[in-house]
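The records we work with from here on pair a chain with its fold. The integers have meaning only within a learned vocabulary of local backbone shapes. A complete example follows; check for yourself that the lines match position by position.

:::
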Amino acid sequence: MPKFLSNLDVDASADVAGGLVVGANQAGHDVKFFGATDAKYMLWDESSDTLKVEGLFAITGDCLLNGDVTGIDTLTVVTLAATDYGLVSGDIPDNAANTTGTAATVTTAAQPNITTMTGVFGTSNTNGVVTSNGDGTVTTEASVTIETAGATTPTLLLNSSALGPKLKVRNENNSGVSPEFWLTNQRGSTAVDGVDGDFCGNIYFSGFDDGTPSSQVYAAITSEMIDTASGAERGSLELKVAEYDGGPPTTGLKLEGQDQDGEIDVTIGAGAASTTTIAGDLTVTTNLTAASRKYELPTSTVGDFKGGDIYYYGDGSTVKGGIYYISGTNWTLADADTESSASGLLAVALGTDPDVDGMLLRGFVTLLTEIEGTEAIGSPIFLSATNSGKATITAPSGDTDIVRVLGYSLHATENQVYFNPDNTFVEVTA
């Protein structure tokens, strides 16, 4: 084999029938091949042990890369014949040969410089998810099935930022269809008959206590198949929270389907000490059953009330805390010196508009002005014959005055009363 110990320039064609060796082991030389376009060439740079291609690098057969591939902006892989496959190792990454003849097996996890990969993943799915079957084959999926090894190895979404991990599901179709989140129990890889008492799915909200610290479930949502009989299925949904004992959360709200179509029973609270607070109105369309009713003493604010029967009806303007009688549709200040204004339906105004603020027919309320006389807790009160719309401790005594018990005093000075007008009255003859 001829050897050249200095530079060799070939300005015309040269046929080399045998091997061509440039340099020796650990003593190489640069080899540069120019193209027909300006600044396009292939260079073997011996100082950096790098093959540099300025231009298109096209491979029509097998490709074996045993090193790092850097500086790539776009990697295009054409459809391969059944006998052709890519064998890639290095930073794009360590994979076995893909012998299926469908696509090269390439991922980008270790090569962030790759921004476009056309034809790599066989099936094209816009915004698809990249998956692996475990032997190095990678594809994009329009939908994804995530399998875990068992209950002790759940799928975990981690984020260490101050904002924490977030999961958002969004519908971008121009329709009213909402995203859906399904939890399904089918008892196997194929569906089999459900069993009464099976759980459809549970959601747990956990954190840590301030002891060891130890993991604690602070809230949960559970759903159960109460009855799985076909055509007569019944289910339940429970909202649970932790309540002091350090054990599993306790049900605070339970919805349970019954054995009649359209019947769902709701249980609120846990134990007799539980309190249910309703900030707004409560509408009961059928019957209300209560073991007892608990009332508090009204405040000293005029018109304040703590439970009772309220009538939202009538015309006219009222003064909050005043005592009125109704005549037709109008509410007028009541007065004990006239039978027509003292013997009928009486009420305490809870505002200025009867059909909006309401009129208290019976209950615990604070009256408008000081009750006439010196009241004591429990003393009866009467409608005043001298001041319209007021109450008095002393029964009226003038001729034709109407004596009617309105209720009982609940405070010695602040006008809180139990308003409950007697159904009978007496007309005074003096």
Residues 265 and 414 are 44 Å apart (CA to CA). The helical segments are 354-357.
